[in-house]
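Table S2 (continued). Query chain:
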Amino acid sequence: MIKIILIDDEPKAIKSLEWEIDNFCKDVEIMATFTRPKEAITYLQHHDPDCVFLDVEMPGMDGFQFLDHFKKRQFCVVFVTAYNQYAIQAIKENAMDYLLKPIDSDDLVLTIEKLKANKKNGRTYDALEERLRSYTNKRIAIPVEGKLVFINTENIIYCESDGNYCKIYLTDKKPLFISKKLKEVQAILPKDDFFRAHNSYVINLKRVSEYLKTDGYVVLDNQEKIPVSRNKKSVFLDKI
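Corresponding output:
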């Protein structure tokens, strides 16, 4: 039996995760749930769960600040969040796994199986980096008009800066206009596939069909011409 607790400032998120666990995961006991991290800290001083399912972005105390209270923790950690930009930090915190909202049932079952293997063998399951890479390649969460839109990074052709805003041009739908700066969007994109060709543009290298040396432009597969800054030309050619 795997014993866990759930920590998320959104009650709906906790109920959703509880439902997923109850319906798809065997031999799992949810010991307690918390919407206030401080209450969970007190609880953990007197109880020993096998794992804490932990949200990242919470008011007052985020998930990483929560873990600062447990320098020598006896429980595993699974981060549950709508944002994949915390992947590297999750690795540094030695997290067991990293689940993106909305949670995929198959991913959740795999995580529970890892927890069982970890408990049985007394070892840390070290496949988190592989999972994170698959998430990064698969989709990112973009906030648009009060909701999160999940998009496959391979469907992004390029991103264009518009002051404090950004336009994301996609292969299969109209551009997304979001209230984030270009550098913020670039930070959550796979570094191997996306390149800051110009102060105003981040391009998907897999979508480059031509490079016009004389003019200093790339032509993307939607026929859009994007300038490449002179000081980035050599780096671009190395990547391409």
